[in-house]
Amino acid sequence: MKDSWTPPDQRDAVVNFLKRMNALTLLPMGNLLRWCELCPRKFARWRERYGKANEHNALVPRDHWLEASEKQAIISYAQAHPLEGYRALTFMMLDANVAAVAPATTYRVLKSAGLIGPTGGRPSKKGTGFVQPLAPHEHWHVDFSYLNIGGAFYFLCAVLDGCSRHIVAWDIRPTMREIDGEIVLQKAREAHPQARPRVISDQGSQFKSREFKTFINQWQASHVMTSPYYPQSNGKLERFHKTLKTQAIHPKTPLDLQDAKRITGDFIEYYNTQRLHSAIEHVYSG
Asked: What is the model's pTM?
């Protein structure tokens, strides 16, 4: 009993024997343990574990552990929504009454199932040194992005609200001139005539033109341009462009301009009314 773990039945038999000898002989338990060459500390632990199986360094089941059916529910939900990240999936499952777990739990389950691979990216510095808007229509981000539709290049122009991540206005234009940006901003302006936002753009020639400055001044809004060669400064809209392309444009492959507008419109409707945004605590932008 010194050099190996004692089986539970043998351990309990020793405890019963020593208790019986102590009651019959009235000898101190310490003397009996010394004669049996049994450590008093070990005997105390044996009495605490009396009637239980040995659990030396073993994983003891806990009430909060996930069952196999719960893990399978998380995996099945993730497979049904392959384009969503694990954090968004966590809150989506909570809304759909599928599972109520922490994001870390979702990550571990999907990682063990091979549904999450290594990212290998650097930590994002987006938002450092920038005062974020506290209400809708304080900041509007505007920019163009290339779209290859049926072998021809078109240009998506979108206006994104910096606080709510709502797409205020958008259009797919044949060119990316100053007038194209003004047309899309005018749509946003007509949708929210009382708004006087700070318009944030890069330093593209269309946004630096005299005509665009006149348009902003007549609107009584303000205009701020980001640092040159640093697209992260307009990262909110850049992130939307990437999301649109990876979740809508590339998978569905529009064949012409009309098809591209339909696909883009459907995705933006989902983006504004149903999609959970991690940057604003996984709530809807609408």
From this structure: 0.60
